[in-house]
C-alpha cells in the first residue's frame, strides 16, 4: 500500500463500495491493494494482457479504448477519481479486451484477483454493488453506440459529458470538471476543434460554462436531454 495509510483510508472512503464493506473486509482491502503512478500517456493495461487485478482511479483521468481494424481509435469510456473497472474481465477470466491509457498523471489502485474473489465470496454488499455497476456500464456502452451512429457531434459531446457523472462509474465527479478540450474530443470521438465548437454552443444554451482548464456543469439533466432540453 501507499506509505501514508491514513491518506489511503481517506481515499478509499470516497469510493462507493468501500463504505458498504464490513470493517474486517475493508481492512483486508487496505492490506492487499497496491497503488502505482502512471504518467500522462502511459498504459495502465493493454489489450491482450492477462487480467489479474480489479483497478480503481485514486486520482487522475483514464480512457478505455481499442484500435479498430482500420486503425481508428475507439473510446469506450473514461474513468475519473473514485471509478473502478475491469470486473467483467475478472469474472470471465479472459484476457484484457481493451487498452487503458492515462490522459494525465494518474494514480491507480490494483486489487489482486484473490482479494476481489474473497469479497465476492464473503460480502453481499459488494456483490450488490457489482450488479449495479455492471448494469450501469452496460447502459453506458449501449448509449455510446447510439451516440456514435445516430447523433451529431454537438449532441455527442453533450451526452458524453453527461455520462461522466454516473454515480456508480465515476462517483467522485463534481460539477466542476478539470478536463481539457482535447480530452473531451477523445471521449466524444471528435476533434479538439469540433469539441471546442460544441462547448461554445452548450455554453450559449446555458448548460455549462467553459473555465480555464475545465468546465462547470450548470444543467446536468439538460446535457442528458440535449438538444430537446435546449429547444424547450
Automatic annotation (TrEMBL):
Transmembrane segments: none annotated. GO terms for molecular function: DNA binding; DNA-binding transcription factor activity. SMART domains: cNMP (SM00100). It comes from the Bacteria. GO terms for cellular component: cytosol. Keywords: DNA-binding, Transcription, Transcription regulation. Pfam families: cNMP_binding, HTH_Crp_2. Residues 21-137 form the Cyclic nucleotide-binding domain. CDD domains: CAP_ED (cd00038). Residues 151-221 form the HTH crp-type domain. This is Crp/Fnr family transcriptional regulator. It comes from Undibacterium oligocarboniphilum.
Amino acid at each position: 500500500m501507499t506509505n501514508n495509510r491514513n491518506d489511503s483510508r481517506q481515499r478509499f472512503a470516497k469510493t462507493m463500495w468501500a463504505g458498504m464493506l464490513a470493517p474486517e473486509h475493508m481492512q483486508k482491502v487496505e492490506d492487499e491493494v497496491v497503488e502505482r503512478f502512471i504518467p500522462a500517456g502511459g498504459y495502465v493495461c493493454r489489450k491482450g494482457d492477462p487480467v489479474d487485478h480489479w483497478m480503481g482511479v485514486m486520482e487522475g483521468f483514464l480512457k478505455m479504448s481499442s484500435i479498430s481494424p482500420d486503425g481508428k481509435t475507439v473510446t469506450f469510456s473514461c474513468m475519473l477519481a473514485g471509478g473502478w473497472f475491469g470486473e467483467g474481465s475478472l469474472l470471465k477470466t479472459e484476457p484484457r479486451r481493451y487498452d487503458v491509457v492515462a490522459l494525465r498523471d494518474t494514480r491507480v489502485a490494483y486489487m489482486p484477483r484473490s482479494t476481489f474473489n474473497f469479497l465476492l465470496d464473503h460480502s453481499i454488499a459488494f456483490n450488490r454493488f457489482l450488479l449495479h455497476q455492471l448494469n450501469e456500464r452496460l447502459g453506458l456502452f449501449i448509449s455510446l453506440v447510439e451516440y456514435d451512429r445516430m447523433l451529431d457531434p454537438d449532441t455527442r459531446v453533450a451526452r458524453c459529458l453527461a455520462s461522466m457523472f454516473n454515480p456508480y462509474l465515476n462517483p467522485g465527479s463534481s460539477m466542476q470538471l478539470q478536463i481539457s478540450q482535447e480530452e473531451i474530443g477523445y471521449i466524444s470521438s471528435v476533434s479538439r476543434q469540433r469539441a471546442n465548437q460544441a462547448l461554445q454552443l452548450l455554453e450559449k444554451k446555458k448548460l455549462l460554462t467553459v473555465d480555464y482548464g475545465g468546465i462547470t456543469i450548470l444543467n446536468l439533466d439538460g446535457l442528458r436531454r440535449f438538444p430537446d432540453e435546449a429547444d424547450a
